[in-house]
Amino acid sequence: xxxxxxxxxxxxxxxxxxxxxxxxxxxxxxxxxxxxxxxxxxxxxxxxxxxxxxxxxxxxxxxxxxxxxxxxxxxxxxxxxxxxxxxxxxxxxxxxxxxxxxxxxxxxxxxxxxxxxxxxxxxxxxxxxxxxxxxxxxxxxxxxxxxxxxxxxxxxxxxxxxxxxxxxxxxxxxxxxxxxxxxxxxxxxxxxxxxxxxxxxxxxxxxxxxxxxxxxxxxxxxxxxxxxxxxxxxxxxxxxxxxxxxxxxxxxxxxxxxxxxxxxxxxxxxxxxxxxxxxxxxxxxxxxxxxxxxxxxxxxxxxxxxxxxxxxxxxxxxxxxxxxxxxxxxxxxxxxxxxxxxxxxxxxxxxxxxxxxxxxxxxxxxxxxxxxxxxxxxxxxxxxxxxxxxxxxxxxxxxxxxxxxxxxxxxxxxxxxxxxxxxxxxxxxxxxxxxxxxxxxxxxxxxxxxxxxxxxxxxxxxxxxxxxxxxxxxxxxxxxxxxxxxxxxxxxxxxxxxxxxxxxxxxxxxxxxxxxxxxxxxxxxxxxxxxxxxxxxx
Length: 538
Prior knowledge:
The chain is mainly α. The chain has helices spanning 21-33, 39-47, 54-66, 91-100, 113-130, 136-146, 150-162, 170-187, 191-197, 201-206, 214-227, 233-242, 247-255, 279-315, 345-357, 375-381, 384-401, 458-475, and strands at residues 6-7, 85-86, 318-319, 329-330, 335-336, 342-343, 407-409, 416-418, 426-428, 437-439, 476-478, 485-487, 494-496, 502-504, 518-519, 530-531. Strands 1-2 form a two-stranded antiparallel sheet. A two-stranded antiparallel sheet has the order 3-4. It has a two-stranded antiparallel ribbon with strand order 5-6. The longest helix has 37 residues, at 279-315.
């Protein structure tokens, strides 16, 4: 009697790690690049991946391939997409074997992976050196597609050099990757993060005086109309405009509105969801969801402080601020200058903000004692972002005051480094929040191997684009009937669209299908009429 097939034991579904958006995108990328590897193997790698550049994860997987030279050739690890049935009595042994070699690629014998990883890594390394400005993820995909084929590799390099401008760029990849990292940071924000970044987050997000982008407004309109289907789109748009496009004050107001009785669902004018995320909207949206918890935490903290003040009053544990003269200040919350002047934290924060606004990096005492307020005190009272910028400004001033030779600063932030070799043309920023590569000479983004004169600067691009757009708009006309756009190459100023509508090229108004609107060449200028002929180039 044939033995019954026994199924390979599966881990509890509750133990499966839920991937973040960034990790999910990385998982899809490595799954496409490594189609022969186990899905669970790649997922485990992504779960243990700290985040950041996807190419680092790809390099880690390639190195893992090369490090498997000593694996037992008799060990075969089944891919989780292969099927769950194994030989009778083999499930326990299989699980023990996979525990011994967790990094072994799946779906093939371990002995075959080093060779594959070798030429793939070689392809990838060569492509990166020949095409440094091309997206590394795109090059990794091509390294896999080329395989162990030298002619195919050479052909791809030749064709890529000819059409390099049309390939996915490294600059765009880094830009998208940096935004994904920032987006992940925002999505991971907790109650404590909002309270450390903002003195009063509710006041900050309810402020409607700042400008927001069109993308932000699009996200706000879509989210509110999607969550309040009983309120018409036009009503939401009106409230959004009243609040200068800001999400939080708008949704607070919409929450109090009475839903329309015409129906539960809208049929017309449904807003379109934005394809790209606006980080400012995302942060405000997350605050909206966390607001009850934030307010609860603030109330609890205030109640705890009030109790502490009452207890301190009994034992003389209070002091009077020398600025606002508040006598209910806790000694444990005192903020002092180097001379011992005592202030409440709110006064020190407000005074420091004023001095930082005056471009000062050393914060003076709020009285006339002449001493400074230590950084340790400022760190306790200032928002995290403001304190970080203050420290960077002070460090930069100290470095510049040292008079170090060959000191160069990143044009995008306060990072500075010493570059004694004048042949080093690229400033590589060591600030993790920046990380830009800029030209040492022109201070623009790195354009190696082109010289500074061969590269069009950002300002020049804007000016040229603006001029070209203006010239195009001066030449192009739009049909008053069907809105189709066209321009006059030659001929008279009476234009007729494909839809049959006639219009004047000069004044852009609709005209009758005759020449009554025009006066002939050489005739006297007639009021309310346009010349039939004119020089189109001028």
